[in-house]
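Recap from last week: sequence in, structure out.
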Amino acid sequence: MGTRRNFSAEFKAKVALEALVGDRTLAELAARHGVHPNMITQWKRQAKESLPEVFAKKASRGAADREAEVKALHAKIGQLTVENDFLSKAFGR
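Predicted structure tokens:
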């Protein structure tokens, strides 16, 4: 019995992307990359299923970045308000 081959995520993504583009048949891709056509079909399906998550993560990461920026700005506003009040009292305005 032979040993099972493991493919990197980068390799799987590259082959799946080539399959999604559709310039070559599954048989051509399988021969070119030395894998079974069923593996390419499986990787292609996994890529299609995970694409919405890629965009959702990016959008949520953007929202988290904006939220962190708003918190930092609110903290700065609070600091400046305290400093302004202190200086107003110190100079008797």
